Structures are given as structure tokens and as C-alpha cells.
Amino acid sequence: MIRTNTAFLDFILVNQDHYPEGSVQELSIKKGQQLIRQRSSVNAVSIVKEGIAKCFLYQEDGTDFILEFFGPGEVVGEIEMLNNEMSFAAVEAITPITVLRISRDWFNELLTNDPVFNHYVLKLLAGKVKYKATRFSFAQTHTVEQTLKKMLIDMPDLLEVISKKDLVSYLGITERSLNRTLKSLKDNGQI
Amino acid sequence: MIRTNTAFLDFILVNQDHYPEGSVQELSIKKGQQLIRQRSSVNAVSIVKEGIAKCFLYQEDGTDFILEFFGPGEVVGEIEMLNNEMSFAAVEAITPITVLRISRDWFNELLTNDPVFNHYVLKLLAGKVKYKATRFSFAQTHTVEQTLKKMLIDMPDLLEVISKKDLVSYLGITERSLNRTLKSLKDNGQI
DNA sequence: GAAAGTAAAGGACATTTGTCCCAGCTGCAG
DNA sequence: CTGCAGCTGGGACAAATGTCCTTTACTTTC
Hints:
2 copies of one chain form a homodimer. Chain A is an alpha+beta fold. Chain A has helices at residues 6-15, 78-83, 104-113, 115-141, 144-154, 158-161, 164-171, 175-187, and strands at residues 2-3, 24-29, 34-36, 44-50, 53-58, 64-70, 75-76, 90-93, 97-103. A 5-stranded mixed β-sheet of chain A has the order 1-6-5-8-3. In chain A, β5 and β6 form a beta hairpin. Chain A is elongated. The mean pLDDT of chain A is 95.
């Protein structure tokens, strides 16, 4: 559930030496800082090098809905760049993170002239589509208890890594429901 | 909610004359026939030319979950092609449809050597990501009544175009819930 | 046109999730 | 130590949705 793409990260790390000065910058971002704000213009693509960020939508009612947790190798901003649009989601560090920031121009340059880079971007987008499809399909047709149980099997240290508030936003439920479900799983010895 | 991509369809229609013999085939598919089966290998990318298809996942419990309705210009099979994987979803005609079927080899050829084609594919993938993100975020944080009301505003003839069964699968609810919600909207004069 | 069979709609109750609020804990100021 | 602010978990009830089954309407057949 925390997504990674180490193959792509390695590819960039290996190749960035040949990229022009300033085309790729390494940035450190503190926990809680936003890498991309919702409805802002995006002029760079960033790759998470270390740490975890959340990608989420503000809802009109004040709650957030988390689309994905991005770990090492995951890419943010590419969708806005491709569509030449304002960001439709926000991205915020939930641990201290470092990112590799590729300038708009160099991203487009690589996309056009480096077939390997281009293919990585295609695959990464396909991966995002598939991830969302399977995740939401499961969530939509299962109870919170079933979903949470599955998540805990996939990632036993979930509750140490992700705050309850973020978990609630990821599941699209209330804190009350999360607490209730957690208690019920504990009472049944499933956790 | 029925997605289309006429720019891409036009692009293919205009250019296909220059493509090699057999690289693009036009096929007619009857209502109810499957264009792609779930967990099957995919060896062509298809573009809907006319009609509507549904893209859905079978769930273990026997219910379907519809990810998208594809209208003219929408593309199926590209994700599997890019990842070189079995299909993770099924695609089935819900009206009679015609599609342009691009062979695996020619799709890869165009992707590599036609920058305009390549860019269309990138944008189309980005569009699928964004569509899923906003749709599921809304669905997850609103009631069925709110979601349905929004859909009916966006598409007043929804119920004539999409069967109740499909609507139920799209919303991830039961028929009983859909009927109840529809009745409640009618009783309140909202429909 | 009546009887029988089938599909769609809806009533009654169960389960899941949300809302509201209170009790108990923690930390800090005085 | 005392008392209060703020956070966390949970109780009680409300709303939303699912399950099961009955009723209604619509076909088909004779």
C-alpha cells in the first residue's frame, strides 16, 4: 500500500550525472510540508528518493481523501505536466523526505528524446491506473473490517508507519469507524 | 461519466491510411460480447469508434465492479500491453460497438516512432488516473443519493443509456439500494 | 383473455458506518 | 499537588446500505 518504483529511481540516479546542470535538483522536505498544493500550477516533476509522502484530494467538506502513499521511486507532478493543468491533488510529506526534482523542460526533453525514460513514464502511469482500479474496487465492495484486515496482512507495521488520521483519510471513513474496527479485530484476536 | 476521446480517434482515423496493411482492423462487436476477458493475454490495443463498452472487474463474490464506460475514442488494452501482463479487467460491449484494433507490433512501433501518438497515449493514461481519482474520492465520501444526483445532473438520460444492473455495478451497491435511492429522488421531485 | 412464469420494485429487518457527546488520560501552569 | 486544556477512545443513537422475501407488473403460452 505504500507504493515504490525502485527501478525508475535507480535509472534516474544512474543517469543524472549526464543531465545538464540544474536539470535535476535534490530537495529535502520536512514532515508536513507540501510538495504540491491542490489547484496550483506545477512546473516540475519530483521523484521520491527517501521517505513517504501522501497524495490526497481536499474535499469541499473539509476532509481529505488519500489516493496513494508514495515511497521511494514514486513520481509526482507528471500528470499535471502532461495535461498542462493545475494540480488536482496535493502531495505532502508524512515523514521527512528527499526528492529529485526534474525541471519541466528537462522532463519534456527526456520524455521526447529518451525512449527508456519515456517507457518508464508510460509504465508508471499504467501502474497508477491499475493500482487505483483494484484498490477502489475492493474498497467499494468490502466492509472496512475486510479492507483493514487485508491491509494489516500486507503490511503488519501499518499502524506504526501511518497515523490514524491518515489511515482514516485513506479509507474514506471516520475516526470512530476506524477505532471500532480496530477494536473488533483485536477482540477477535485477528491483530 | 461515459468517457470519450474524440481527438485521439480523429488522429487515428486521419492517419490510418498511411499505416501498413493489417496493422489497424475495424471490428464490429455485438452487445454483450467481450472485447477483453479478465486474466487473459492481450495482443492488441483497441479504440472504440462507435458505441459504448464497460470496463469492469469480476469480484471473487460474483459481483462486477465497473471502472469506466468507454465511448468513442477511448482505448482499451494499452495498460496490459505496456506492462506485458494478463488483463486485470474485462471489457464488454453494452451497445453494439465498432472498434479499431491496432496490432501489438504496430502499437509498439507507433509508441516508439510517432511522438504525437506517444503523447496521446501518455495523456490518455493521465486522464484515466485523474478520472479514477476524482470519481472514487467523491464516491467514497458521499452517499449514494449524492453521487446519483450528481450523475443525473451531468447526464440526464443516464437511465435510458445505462441499464440498472450496470449502474449498480458502477456504483458498487445493490439493486435494492439503487431502487430506494431512485425512489427517494423521485419523491423529492429531484428527478 | 386467463393462467403461469419471470423480471422488477418495494417492505421489513439486519448490519455497517456516521454523528454526537462524554469519560478518562496526559501534560503543563500555577 | 491541583486544576484545567486538549487529545483519544468508546457508548448510544441515527442514518445509510445490505439481505431476504413478498408483492406487483409484465410476458408468454395456450
